[in-house]
Amino acid sequence: MGTKSREVIWGGRIMGAEIRAQGARQRAQEASREADQAEAEAWSVRMEGYGGPAQPSPTIDQCLNGGLGWLEVECSRCKTRASLPLDAIRRPRETPIWKLEASLKCRSCRNGRWAPPVRMIKLTQTQRITPYKWVHPTEER
Ligand SMILES: [Zn+2]
Question: How many domains would you assign to the chain?
Fold first, then answer.
């Protein structure tokens, strides 16, 4: 067997294996995205439909990976709603989103250090409401 045919045979097998590996990786990625999306959606439906419980919740990373990158929240006092982009929240990506609730504050109701509690409504794929009235979780600490 000459060098050339060896290359063809082994090279072809290697390429085949690499393609299979790539395909499997891609499927695993899609499966993980699907799982994250399903989990984020389940949480979102529970929040919107039953008002909670917020725990346990998916992580920021899971929501982003699942394509639900916006968290809709409501001020318990003035009922103002806002959509917050999860990818802009400077918290570790493995933070469960229920942990964000305590640090969210409505700008118009905030009074010094005090602010009325904020309720998480649901997760969405796109921005629904302008978030400008809201204090970013990392703005004040
Ligand atoms: Zn408010």
Answer: 1
Does 16 reside within a domain?
no
- Strand ranges (DSSP E) for 7-117? 70-75, 81-85, 105-106
> Is 6 a domain residue?
no
- Please give the model's pTM, rounded to 2 decimal places: 0.79
| pLDDT tens for each residue of 9-61 | 899 999 999 999 999 999 999 999 999 999 999 999 999 999 999 999 999 99
The answer to whether position 29 is within a domain reads no
Measured in Å, residue 134 CA sits from the centre of ligand 1 at 9
Chain position carrying tokens 């920021």: 60
Say how many Å lie between the CA of residue 76 and the centre of ligand 1: 7
41 assigned to some structural domain: yes
Place of tokens 């990373």: 61
